[in-house]
Design goal:
alpha+beta, aa-tRNA-synth_II, single chain, 14 helices, binds 4-amino-1,4-dioxobutan-2-aminium adenosine-5'-monophosphate, elongated, binds magnesium ion, 5-stranded mixed barrel
Length: 461
Amino acid sequence: LISIRELYKNREKYMDKKVEVGGWLRSIRDSKTFGFIVLNDGTYFEPLQVVYHDTMDNFSEIVKLNVGAAIIVKGTLVETPQAKQPFEIQADEIFIEGQSTGDYPLQKKRHSFEYLRSIAHLRPRTNTFQAVFRVRSLIAYAIHKFFQERDFVYVHTPIITGSDCEGAGEMFRVTTLDMAQLPKNPDGTIDYSEDFFGKETNLTVSGQLNGETYAQAFRNIYTFGPTFRAENSNTTRHAAEFWMIEPEIAFADLQDNMILAESMIKYIITYVMEHAPEEMKFFNQFVDKGLMERLNGVVNSEFGHVTYTEAIDILEKNNNKFDYKVSWGCDLQTEHERYLTEEVFKKPVFVTDYPKEIKAFYMKMNEDNKTVAAMDCLVPGIGEIIGGSQREDDYDKLISRMNELGLNVEDYGFYLDLRKYGSTRHAGFGLGFERCVMYLTGMSNIRDVVPFPRTVGNCEL
Ligand code: 4AD
Ligand code: MG
């Protein structure tokens, strides 16, 4: 079979020749003696028109085909200068690979994203989701390409862990114990000593801690894998299972970290614009009208920079616009993040040096002893897309911060070792992959950029 992509890309090679394609029927109409089928094979955003005639043996079966059916067409590719599409196939033969029953849920009309979520197994056959998931695939590739070209080592960090990297307690527990008969310690806590791993374990919320150990061996590394958070927030940008890209760089500080993040984002945008022009045009036309202009602007300008303290000053002056009023020390909510990036900077912006109280234990303390060397990257339409920091590389400071927060130091022995054996300045960040896909496609709900989303109360398929 030749792919429809190949026909579009190298059309001269196939023009007026015999070709064979397979795909799924998007629409069909017939007159008495001939008819048209619009076929999509998933390899290319544009479909292919097929013309068939009553001279074919199975003409009577073909006219009965339903939308969604799988067919194979043999015929001649011919130019159609008068038509919307540049060419079509004049079919000699059509094999019916699999008829579709008449109740196919995707008919030739616009379905709401909400409805399509309820048929997540079929939505990849629609234009929007063909575009979303091809672009998602391309972004993943672009990210690997970006890091590999810079000699970063790709590290596979574990999915099952015994630590809570972000210290937010939002973990999914992993256990083989019978939940109805969990053994208890004398103090009432659950006793995991008889469990599979002999200790309490959970699905990872971030690969960072393990990633750091490899950065202290390879200098520059990145992870790219699934992460899990039992955050009870039912929003358009939180998923319980999402993918994260976490580079970690040794002999580097917060500044180097932001330079890396900015060049990565620009690289991804450039790559996708170049390799998915049809899809991007589609998003720009049907999903988010300002998309292309905005992304072009991002590639051609510098990201903004503001400290948390400066950001709070700006936001406080506009507190009347927010549901949740800000003051120094509070965590930024989506509405504040979006205000900063959409109204104040009108482009991606790094917010740096957050109060230590609202950030994780591993971040490097600043001289003021109040803030840490953190950076979040905020983008229009979404808010936080990246969270990162320079790491505390001083053994004593790290231990005392962990004690302050009541962390069980024994669980982090490996992590502390890094500060004993050749500690270096180092930094890293996490890019939320789904948020990145939202940013590049203009899709506004995280459920529509994950093939099979897992969110509070939803684990279908
Ligand atoms: O800001 P976060 O929590 O940072 C970390 O996990 C660090 N360990 C990263 C590092 O420094 N190596 O998460 C990083 C990013 C966020 O900016 C966001 O884009 C995404 O992960 N993210 C989520 N995406 C979807 N659903 C959720 N529930 C998410 N939580 C975080
Ligand atoms: Mg964060």
